[in-house]
Write a structure and sequence with these properties.
heterodimer, A: mainly beta, 5-stranded antiparallel β-sheet, 4-stranded antiparallel β-sheet, 1% helix, B: alpha/beta, 6-stranded antiparallel β-sheet, 11 helices, 31% helix, globular
Chain lengths: 417, 356
Amino acid sequence: MSELQFAAPSSRADREMAHNMRLIAHHELAGFGGLGEGIAMQKTRDGRRVLWLAHESAPKNFTALDVTDPRAPKLIVQTELPHMKVRSNSLEISGDLMAVAYQVQAPGMKPAGFDLFDIGRPEAPRLISHFDCSGPHSRGVHALWFVDGQYVHLAGGAPDFQPHNPLDDQCYRIVDVRDPARPVECGRWWYPGTRVGDAEPQPARLPPAFDSGFRAHNTNVYPQRPDRAYVGYLDGGAFVLDIADPSDIRVVSSWNHSPPFNGFVHTVMPLFDRGLWVVSDECVQDDGKDWPKLVWMVDARDERNPVPIGTFPMPPVEVFGRRGGRYGAHNLHENLPAEVSFRSETLIAGTFFNAGVRVFDTSDPFAVREVAYYVPKAPPLSPAGAIQLNDLYVDDRRLVYTVDRFAGGLYVLEMNL
Amino acid sequence: MGGDIDPLRSRLPVTLVTGFLGSGKTTLIGRLLRHPSMRRVAVIINEAGEIGIDHDIVAMSSEQVSLLANGCLCCTVRTDLQETLRALFGERRAGVIPDFDRVVIETSGLADPAPALQTLVTDSMLAAQYRPDGVVTLVDAVHGARQLVEQEEARKQVALADLLLVTKDDLAAPGQVVALREDLRELNAQAEVRQVRLGEIGPQELVGFGPGSARVEAGNARFLGALLRDGGPGPDAPDSPGYLGGHRPGRLHAGIRTASLRFDRPFSWPVFAEAMQAILHLRGQDVLRVKGIVDIDGGPVVVQGVQHILHPPLRLDRWPGADRGSRLVWITRGMDVAAIRGMFLATQALGAAGPR
């Protein structure tokens, strides 16, 4: 195929790219436009839609925007962290309760755990309780899942959890918050062999260049299968756990592409009606150094025997690999069981750092089709020199809310699908 | 609104602009390229030299692609249309060329548009990204009538059109335009006929002919409007000969005619498909075009075809109006419309008796 080359530089990071997606609003969050991987939408009792966003790093904790009119998001609250060595990164809401994660830069620091807030009045979140995960070997909570108002599922350390390797400090924990003022742990699972005292041998690690650790990341539990947790366990791969008895969690099955791939399984999202899992990696190195980081389609009709059947198509690494910052898979819109969340068994959307937000039609799971994308131009002052879309949320109006990791803030998009 | 993808909406619409030599196609394309609302439109032309793109409207350019000041992408066709369309999408996805939301293709004056339309439906790589939207055919008011009698390609271009533009009417003798419009009506009773001078027509007039979505609300007005108009509640219109009927001597266009068929009993898909396949197997070359809305087990399905190739059937989310009858418009060459009708009725009768 011959080329249609322009003399001008191709694929410049300062140029927007769009296919079947249109930007309808952009909000820079009062200059604090670096956002993590916690986005949730609240439908308030007075009928407003409020988008809650966790920041990537200090000084800001979380921000809420009124997106009832998605073309004119209004900032209604923005909160501070207690110091610069803690980050929130992740949050979820259920009704008027919000759980916010806290992860510190070094084990032993505080606050390391999660907060529960009453957000009945979104303008004035009220702290209900703090669940402390700090300890001599714990960096606190990286990511959490909270959709039923009863249990917080999280990736976090614990005061009594000592890993052989400091990279393996965050395990899967279930915390009962039925009394929000008094959260109590009711279940825990970790990769066998990673905790000091385990009878199992320590797992074989990836080469140092790609050793991200054996930690939980996303820990999803859906109402369709309240007895299953779908867990991305970084270099340990994808796990499905039987949590029918939280005090006795058992492995149903697991699947890992690494080695030979470069680890960091991030999300395991089941498509219950179709017997499929969508598994995403996270790219964690700049300039394509850990390429390929992909989204995988896994046939799980028999959940005990997951079989990979394909990957989602990605734009050329030659184009995006060195466009600035990271290029590769990260978060998916996770079909949250919430009234205002978009839910689909076929249309899957995800963020890919400098390749923006991309939407896929998985009707044929063997031949997933990319059907839309939006790549914002590089935000001013971004240290990456390119957009780094980190996370997204799709609402029941089919609007896509996506955030930049460093500077760009929030982008609201319409899909033409 | 469910969680699934609309089977058509995400695909880039493609408009074919056809017209015989001297019909003013080059003038029309040239004006289009300069129109302010051509941003994010890719125009594929045969020969840049003919169009005469001045340097002052070119913002960026390479050997084969120019980005014009109005945001329009002007591309010269390479070895073939398939390769050009594939490369355009690939290079756009790689950020080499700017984004575009639709494509306009200038076909060569001698071209039969049917193969290009069929390619868009049958090439699986192209069909994933593009969809044919419509055919716009220019006809010269002075020479058009003669070309239609003498040239098979000219007749095909008219028969396949969604919009017929009569050009140079200011140069035609009185009565010539009226007669030409009659000829066009005879060859294609479906398409709207308009007169334009010096290519003065807005880009929006050249789009929106095809069903752009399975959702009736989402921009199907033009396509469905035509079907509703043509398939009205009256009896079948097996022939549309115009006010002079077949009585004008020397105006025989190889038996091309438009016919509307209507069926009031719903079909099952297997029955409808069997009848359609039999007709296309036997006479695909003579079915220049068929389009319609069909009642399949109570639900509306859009059916379109060019010669022996049918587009994938499109199930609409609801009926676009109160009329729930099946309505099909046929543009055929030398075919007995009663026989087509009979084929559907016979298949329906046989199918109803047996297992479905």
